[in-house]
Amino acid sequence: MKLWKTKSTAALGLLLLTFTTACGNGSGQPTAQASTDSAASNKTTATAASTETASTETAADAKPAAGEEITVYLNDFDAVIGDMFEKKTGYKLNVVVGNGAEIMSRVEAEKGNPQWDVLWIDSMPSVNGLDRQGQLLQGWTPDNAGKLKDQFEAQVPEDKAYYPTGAHAAGVLVYNTKEIAEADAPKSWADLTKDVYKDRIGTADPAIAAPAYPFVSWFFENKGMESGEQYFGDLMKNGMRVYPKNPQVAQALTSGEVDVAMLQETNAYSLVNDGEPVKIVWPAEGAPGSVRVAAIQKDTKHAAVAKEFVNFLLDPQVQQQLIDEGDESYFEPSAEGAKTKPDREPNAKLNIADAAWASEHEAEIKQWFADQAIQ
Q: Which end of the chain has less Cβ packing within 10 Å, N or C?
């Protein structure tokens, strides 16, 4: 049995590779050297021609009728966001929910006839790739963009094609306290390559789970491609098990199938809140982060409502409500004024891979992981 990838995930992983080949190896220009702790170089995304932007903002920007509906593709918050937006604005959301692979594969399949108005997903590199393909509305600034914290303002591309609504740890270290004593628990990402953790590690599939690719991409950018392959190759040799999504990783951790997990932070804190025998470790070097961004389809017929929705997502009161009531409530809000969960690590350090770099290398990195599955 291959521990890297189960048969149940292989078909969907290959489907997503088809998407990332088109999206990650687009016609965009090469980007500047990325910084691992800053996404300022994200602004190297190509700027749209002003004539194209002007043609987009015509009839679709007319004042919308009461009760007008837009279609939003997302991978979280589906239980609350529709009611929140309708109560605030009177406009309705047709929410289409799926994991990262499902949503991005659907976007690719509909490329010739998009059925979505807004994409809201925690996979900024993939959205950056859509921008480089010319699929996103560019050149507009939401009123609430002025409320973005500096580190999130730096994530907005130069062409203003998408806006960040928050970021979370795509993976923290979590261990089962019944199986591992605190003194023996991993303290850093490098610790996972030690023999003591052989056949005891679990993580999510970067070809399927939306935050899993931002997680691995930071290692590849920070270490370099060759050293990134070496690191994950060592983990695979150490018996790392890969599950389709983070909830399956969490289940494996609590069932005893694995004893240590690289787990997305909301899933990690949920285990703690449920009284499971686990403990969270935030490595001193930081945790790879995933930025959730919102983007508008360039040919939407509902641009006014779509813009209203993106602006709504940047409202600090809305972000606070998502933290207080949402299903993915452990995250760093992008707007000044919103506060994180009180039990979240107060000194959490998120390392964000440069979106343009991660987008450019997405197909290559995912293909490398796919190749390991068949060896």
A: N
